[in-house]
Amino acid sequence: MADLLQTSLHDLHLELGARMVPFAGYDMPVQYPLGVLQEHLHTREKTGLFDVSHMGQVIVRGIDYAAAATALEALIPVDILGLGEDRQRYGVLTNDAGGIIDDLMLANRGDHVFIVVNAACKAADIAHMTAHISDVTVTEITDRALLALQGPGAAAVLASLDPRAATMRFMDVANLDLAGVECWVSRSGYTGEDGYEISVPSTAAVGLARALLDFTDVEPIGLGARNSLRLEGGLCLYGNDIDTTTTPSEACLNWAIQKVRRADGARAGGFPGADTVLSQLKHGADRKRVGLRPTGRAPMRDGVQLFADPDSDHPIGTITSGGFGPTVQAPIAMGYVQTAYAAPGTTVYGDVRGKRLPADIVAMPFTPAKFKR
Amino acid sequence: MKYTEEHEWLRVEGDVVVVGITEHATSQLGDIVFVELPEVGSTVVKDDEIVVIESVKAASDILAPIDGEVIEVNDALSDNPGLANEDAIGDGWFVKIAPSDPSQMDTYMDEAAYNALIA
Question: What is the mean pLDDT of the segment spanning A281-295?
Fold first, then answer.
């Protein structure tokens, strides 16, 4: 445990009674005394505060925004150049086979691109960006923490610290003055709820967290509930649902690739694996990421193999994330199946401890998204 | 009451052994969301996996503490798995076993020894 990294909120987590676990090299809170189930429900009904400081914060600078955006478009099949100032969008880094190296959030901050990447991938992402794009600087921000405030009450809470929070729309980015410090705030998150992600100077992180926790309706939420919330929201977990062997089309992330980067677009291709990615965009992929609702009570977790019928010997897919959905009040899962079995309403069979249990393919998200568009 | 190193509690009621898991175990598992119970009438051998518990975090098994026959299971857990969290040593029991060799019970810990184990 000695070599685990700590976020600037580590002592606060212990003070709040968190159970800590190793995650992506960090000692992180998996739950607080409320417990995963109640933390999940609290976030859906009121407001949850998450420490996501383990994630990587990166700034890419060129001579201007366009230079940095253009450089990044050589690695990311997304319209970064056309992203409006103080707007954010989702993207992926691809490899030469069209697989996904990481998924990330990109923001146009006027004269630079601000990127948030997954904790487990951040060192490799930065090395990859640094090695493959020139005339820009790629800098990891190591003196800022990252908090997420999520749930239907998040807007009112944050607006009482800085009223400008209320006027932001989903995927807007702004510098807000929160508890006396300038924070870089986006109206986004990883729960399917309205909310914000807040980049705050490390030295002020505990003060801001305490100021937010002072609101009656705000509870600290651990990684356990973060996972069940994002699964109900139909959102991918890198390393489970997407990785270097899955392409954007297979992962049903076509929506993240804007027209301008597609086959007939003005800046078509020009990123690693473009041949594969653009061909699959046009012709479809052989397998697809789908949502699954096991019809019984038994959860189907990652690694469960899927079959077309109860007696078949040949798997047609695999669960990549699964568990119990506290808001859905039933087991839910996502995974990959051959495209022939991907239509909602199809019944497939998961092999759970040697038993073939039915599960229906369903559309995601499992709970309606509450983004403030 | 006797205890196993697998954090099961065993309560002898006449000729029957009632099996559950301890509060320490339920707090480690977190909220329990699914319980798969064995069939009444099935014969079990010590260390067989007889119950599957799924919590919000992971799946885990309960092993048969003794040889015998399952004579009753707690069907209330199928509809309300959270009973095991709420009342671990009472309404949250899992199975009742009629032991074929009651002397197997002698190998298990008493409460003081179990408390020392989890301390």
Answer: 97
